[in-house]
Amino acid sequence: MHRHRPTAAFSWLVLVSVIAIGLNLRGPIVAVAPVIDVISHELTMSAAQAGLLTSLPVLCFALCTPLASFVVGRAGPDVAVTLTLAGVMLGTIVRSGGAGSATIVGTVIIGVFVTVGNVVVPVVINRDVPPHRVGIATGAYTAALNVGSTLTTLGTAPLVGWVGWRTALDLWLVLAAAAIIIWVYAVGGRRALGLPALTGAAGSSGVGSPTGVDGTDPLLRPQTPDVPPRLRGIAVLLSLAFAGQAFGYYGLTAWLPQLLAQDAQLSRSLAGASSSLFQLAAVVGALGVPLLAHRIGATRTAMIVGLLWGSVPLGLIFAPGLWAAWAVFGGIAQGGGITIVFMLVVTVTRTGTQARRLSALVQGVGYSLAAASPAVLGAAHDISGAWTLPVAVVGAGVAVFIVCSVWAARRSTMMPASRPVEAPEPALQR
After folding, report:
1. Is 1 a member of any domain?
2. pLDDT at residue 417 tops 60
3. How far is the C-alpha of 237 from the C-alpha of 246, rounded, in Å?
4. pLDDT > 70: what percent of the chain?
5. Of the candidates 220, 253, 274, which is a domain's last residue?
6. Are residues 174 and 250 in the same domain?
């Protein structure tokens, strides 16, 4: 994978592309949440079956990350992005096009292709964004994840009243279509589709050609080791940090409204508002963390994010009446936490191949634990009959994030910043 020095104009075009991609990697998943009762009623689905519409994609994140890494490595990041967006469109159409079984199949398709997107975006940032803009690009990407979630969460329910749930879900295809158009413009149609390059042309974007810097076929080059020895320690730390972050995020996303309705005596509408605060505040964390890291360093920034995250379980246990503060602090922390992890994935890797494999490892471990979070917290509530124990379990996950993210950030400062140019990975068609 070719690491190059993009021009300022191209790097901003890539940034727009990354934002457009991010809008499509969570929104299609959460779009069903506001209307899941309408869907389950029309399709006569049980509560367990309806729950699969939101839990299956997270399970795909955990189980399909190795497959996603293979796809990105085999097809190349340009084609992988196109496959991601086309797959999300396909899954959306299938999900709303038939009976209950088709809805489940479409959800799985969305989950699989979003997993490819999860892996490939850090690779694109590593390859196409100058080092001094990595933080901005990563923050913009993670902010776009939350903006996409918020748009579809707030917009789907009103649309259902006008056009029905099937068309309402399909209307969000416009975001994926727009992202494909932007991506094709950014890298060129031939590269986005994996077509052979024209003689003497490397694509409209100016990114490196399919062959290596010395003109040899990359298929003949020795393969980069899966996890280089210098990255093994930080790979473990980043995997655990992401696991703690994702565990807390998905657990609170699932149970925060019910927790506040019972412990803080909130109405259903106010309890639902807490979820909106939790999601929207993530934009502040995602955009603020890169700026903060630039000023005070990644280690101190990770400490601040950890303090915000740590205040949430403590606050929910000892002062649930201040729920709005904990929702905002938690939102900032979860947006900043995922940004810190992805920033470190990009900055500690020296080549695009390493970025892809480290990204896949970190997300595979993290989402494996995150997929179990709602069930674990629900079981803890059933056992104790209260929310103190589940919140304490969230606190344990947050503690893992704090320790491992700070440790990983500190280790990253001791690694060389230079990234040698690496030949691109082979595409399906060159």
Report:
1. no
2. no
3. 14
4. 84
5. 220
6. no
Among 200, 220, 240, which residue terminates a domain? 220
pLDDT averaged over every residue in the chain: 81
Which residues have a Cβ under 8 Å from the Cβ of 207 and sit 6 or more positions away? 2, 4, 6, 10, 127, 128, 187, 191
Does one domain contain both 210 and 238? no
Secondary-structure breakdown of the chain: helix, strand, coil percentages, each rounded to the nearest 5: 80, 0, 20
Asked if the model's pLDDT at residue 120 lies above 50, the reply is yes
Q: Are 241 and 366 contained in the same domain?
A: yes
Nearest to 190 by CA among 89, 79, 87, 85: 79
Name which residue leads in pLDDT, 3 or 35. Answer: 35
Q: What is the pLDDT of residue 403?
A: 96
| Span 201-237, pLDDT tens digits | 444 443 433 333 333 333 333 333 355 666 888 999 9
Q: What does the alpha-carbon distance between residue 426 and residue 306 come to, in Å, rounded to a whole number?
A: 40
| Nearest by Cα to 255 from 401, 408, 393, 86 | 393
pLDDT band at 355 (very low <50, low <70, confident <90, very high): confident
For residues 172 and 251, membership in a common domain is answered with: no
Residues 247 and 157 in one domain: no
Report the candidate in 256, 284, 283 with the shortest Cα–Cα distance to residue 272: 256
Q: Answer whether residue 327 is part of any domain.
A: yes
Q: How far apart are the first and last CA of the chain?
A: 14
Task: Tally the domains of the chain.
Answer: 2
Q: How far apart are CA 256 and CA 248, in angstroms?
A: 11
303 φψ region: left (φ > 0), alpha (ψ -120 to 50), beta (else): alpha
User: Can you read off the two tokens belonging to residue 341?
Assistant: 């992890």
pLDDT of residue 255: 81
Residue (of 92, 75, 73) closest to 83 by Cα position: 75
Scanning 96-133, the segments in alpha helix (DSSP H) are 100-128
Range of the domain at 61: 8-220
Do 314 and 174 belong to one domain? Answer: no
Q: What CATH number should be reported for the domain holding residue 199?
A: 1.20.1250.20
